[in-house]
Fold:
Amino acid sequence: MSRRKQIYEGKAKILYEGPEPGTLVQYFKDDATAFNAQKKATLDGKGALNNRISEYMMMRLGEIGIPTHFIKRLNMREQLIKKAEIIPLEVICRNVAAGTMSKRLGIDEGEKLPRSIVEFCLKRDDLGDPLIAEEHIHAFGWASQAELDEMIGMTLRINDFMQGLFSGVGIRLVDFKIEFGRVPLAEGHQIILADEISPDSCRLWDRDTDKKLDKDRFRRDLGEVTEAYQEVAMRLGILKPNPSNPPTLSVVSSDD
Ligand code: CDP
Structure:
């Protein structure tokens, strides 16, 4: 049992107080939830895989000049991050129609969008993270115009970079969700990429077969969820194949 002070527990992660002021420890759980937590399961090994995949993505994005909360990985399930004031928005970037966009606009899943589209949802689980317009963000003061411009600019750069990275390993980046936070500077503050980037927060399809390698395997009961996450990690070169120790999947409860 950890004696560190727990700051926050979310659906898939726990945040603990970090060793230095201005730091936190982000712990990746094996828990999976979908449909606003109506469907729940424990997927053995998911937390460790997401820890590694998110570390890799944040490090690569850091190399191209995207400021992120990632400092270093501490162990299998934990990483040291910068403490940030999370902006209460989910920023979604889409290249191919899927999920709620397909439902909302009646566009077939898999249809390539005319261009990449950035959407905003309000981070409010109790409301089911509703889609909002930039007008709402301005009117309710959730972010300033300058912050919004910066978030949109960073999101499009992240999208360009990740599309290329995944395309190099035969994966289509259909869409993804990111979150940003504010960290104080001597004067003002800086906007940094926070939370995680993993198959929990991206749609990743095999380029040739359209096989889903992301959380839709869990949402849609397609099975082999951690195996798919492991395949993403292996294709990115993060994990070496280890046939003697295949991941196991144990669904403890599924009520959907
Ligand atoms: O995933 P769902 O169909 O509910 O919603 P979406 O708006 O189609 O999701 C777009 C992308 O954002 C997908 O890659 C989701 O996995 C991700 N997302 C997320 O990570 N967390 C949310 N609360 C909502 C979406």
In short: The pocket of cytidine-5'-diphosphate is lined by residues 90, 92, 98-101, 129, 175-177, 201-203, 215 (CB under 6 Å). The radius of gyration is 18 Å.
